[in-house]
Each structure stands twice: as structure tokens, then as C-alpha cells.
Q: What sequence folds into this?
């Protein structure tokens, strides 16, 4: 399966536009989000999959663009694959994750 991705420069533009038709999911753990977090994203830690997996289509609309982030882009890629398997059609992974965002876009975001 060919996974769509965006780089952090593209993400910065999306965050500036504040488009309500774009859904933003962060799959990192709460302890990671306590260190570094982009407030536009909703936190859905992969370790809590059992708590939210059956509700994903009530929280997010499968037909809308959905962007997923994690620390480096691996866990978010897994989440993207799962979302696609659930019928989501416009899913994109953030290449490099929040770490790349901190390096290339916003140095005030702590790295860990």
C-alpha cells in the first residue's frame, strides 16, 4: 500500500490555514505530549488503542483529509495504514514527525 505523506513545511502551511475540513491526530503517548505538542492535534495514543479504536469514525470523518503525527513518523505511518483499512480515504503521514517539526519549523518545541 502506498502511503501518502507530507513534510513539516507542508504541515506548517496547513496549521496556519486552520482548515476545519482537516483532521489532525497525534498518536504519541501522553508523557510525550507533555514534553512537546502541537495544540491543533488531538491525542490518540497507540497504547490506548482499545479505548478509542471502535469510536474512531464517530470522532473523525473518514471522507475528510486526516493528518497523523508521532515522534519520527513510524507509529503515525502504522496509524495511517489502520485508518485506511477502516475506510479513511485521505490519510497523510507527517514525515519526520514532531521531531522534524521542532528542527525545521519551530525550535521552541522541545526535542526528546
A:
Amino acid at each position: 500500500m502506498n502511503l501518502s505523506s507530507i513534510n513539516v513545511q507542508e504541515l506548517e502551511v496547513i496549521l496556519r490555514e486552520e482548515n476545519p475540513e482537516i483532521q489532525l491526530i497525534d498518536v504519541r503517548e501522553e508523557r510525550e505530549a507533555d514534553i512537546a505538542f502541537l495544540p491543533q492535534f488531538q491525542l490518540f495514543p497507540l497504547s490506548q488503542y482499545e479505548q478509542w479504536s471502535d469510536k474512531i469514525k464517530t470522532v473523525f470523518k473518514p471522507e475528510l483529509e486526516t493528518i497523523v503525527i508521532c515522534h519520527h513518523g513510524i507509529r503515525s505511518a502504522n496509524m495511517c495504514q489502520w485508518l485506511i483499512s477502516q475506510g479513511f480515504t485521505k490519510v497523510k503521514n507527517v514525515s519526520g514527525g514532531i521531531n522534524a517539526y521542532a528542527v525545521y519549523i519551530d525550535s521552541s518545541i522541545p526535542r526528546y
Summary: Strands lie at 4-6, 22-26, 42-43, 65-69, 90-94. The two ends are 30 Å apart (CA to CA).
